[in-house]
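Wait, can you check?
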Amino acid sequence: MSRILVTGGAGFIGSHLVDRLLSDGHEVVCVDNFDGFYPRWTKEANLAQARTNPRFRFYEADIRDASAMRGLWGEFGFDAVCHLAARPGVRPSLSCPAVYWDINTRGTLLMLELAREFRVPRFVFASSSSVYGASSRAPFREDDAADRPVSPYAASKRSAELLCHTYHHLYGLNVTCLRFFTAYGPRNRPDLAVARFARLIDAGEPVPVFGDGRSRRDYTYIDDIISGVAAALERCSGFCIYNLGHSEPIELLDLIRVLERALGRSARLVFHPDQPGDVPLTHADIRRARHDLGFEPTTPIELGIQRYVEWYRRQPVLCPAV
């Protein structure tokens, strides 16, 4: 059994990871500040299962609060850290880039400093496929340059990756960076495409489509993502970057058709111009993760969307469309 710190553990990916680590027998310390990016009650609901487990401890705190974080790290001897806490969202980052830099880059720097100070053996950082920018080479490989991000969010994540490498190089910290490709599934963030479109289609409201609907995303079911994260936590050594994606991109219009079938309703599409910061394609090359982590996504989009809709139908109260 290991004692693992999960920052951002009340969020979509974080709460699924917490549940997985607890089911694997680990002790989990979770930190989250219930940032107002989306409603607090959704994150509280995410933690409902974990709170029943005696090996789970929760601390409401901001990762940028150096005093609170140092006190927490000093109280526990962590065997591993999974740093998921971040301000998410490509489009929102265009209106408040300084916030994204402060949370995603400076916040990660503080976590790395604490990992160095308290000699944590394994540090896993949650990055994003957005670091690849508008890459013309597909599928995206971890050794691609990733030096032309097209949004402040992407730049903040790439900067944090570079800090991770610096701390490995200078201090020998074992660090693994995971580039997530459009995770979806139960507990999905309400602002993301699958959750937002499902609500709008179900309510018979217009569904906004930016561009011609031909953009493609590498949608990856949450259980597959979590299997990759859990493997990375176990095998973290040296400095490594891994793509965690399904490696089968789907067009936006095709995603909407899958949602229509799962919901049993038709979508009313309204087309808008392309959004600044968006990219036409994400496509993960997962050969490295397959070889090193045994990562093998198994959930096709039709099954994943069906599972999401089944979860969605069970929710007693739904978030408003955003």
